[in-house]
Amino acid sequence: MKAAGERIAALTAYDVMTAKLVDAAGVDIILVGDSAATVVLGYENTLPVSLDAMVLLTAAVSRARPRALVVGDMPFMSYQASIADAVRNAGRMVKEGGAEAVKLEGGSRTVPKVEAVIGAGIPVMGHIGLTPQSVHELGGYRVQGRSDDDRRRLIDDAKALEAAGCFSIVLEALPPDLGGAITDSVSIPTIGIGAGPLCDGQVLVINDIIGYVDGRAPKFVRAYGDARSVVSDAAARFVGDVKKGDYPSDDECY
Ligand code: KIV
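That is the input. Now the predicted structure with 3-methyl-2-oxobutanoic acid docked in place:
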């Protein structure tokens, strides 16, 4: 698709119904992101979500049997401690979760894990720029690659991940010209999130695009729906009908 100049559309999903709907809408990649930690499980950041939880959510998405590629996100501490952990846990995402590929955060320092996972026959998507699993090291959720040194390092990281065998790389929260420079410096597709229009594809969190989140969305989010209102209106009308004795009607009884 990169060679053909066809842009790649990716969305997250964490359950079977959403996976079916985004697949039918034509997404190329469904990412079972560790963003599930915040948007599904209510944690403050992505650090606490367990591998068991990610395997469970990935399996739910895989059961939709989508046409799109299913990428399972490796959660924090499922690959950082050792190469053996990385391979064993990526294996669980594929074997139990049904993922067709996994995503690991980090540039050059993650390369040994990336190579080992690919060596086990599991395709790997890289992820550089703002890597939320390193939020404490980065000092918060900030745009990355502002200094010349950081720009050079990120371009080197992308090249290292390509050389390690990644089939694509997520670029998160980068100035648009750097998104373009990284995209031009590798032959594998880049998938941007807050990294401008020059990436080969774009990914967003499904809850953000359907307006199903608490609080303010990041600047790069475009909301295409208002699922919050759909749920709260339906729930409020149901409660009202039950309280009035309007539900169930004769037609809704056996
Ligand atoms: O966890 C996630 O959803 C992600 C993407 C948004 C890139 O990593």
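The first strand starts at residue 8 and ends at 12.
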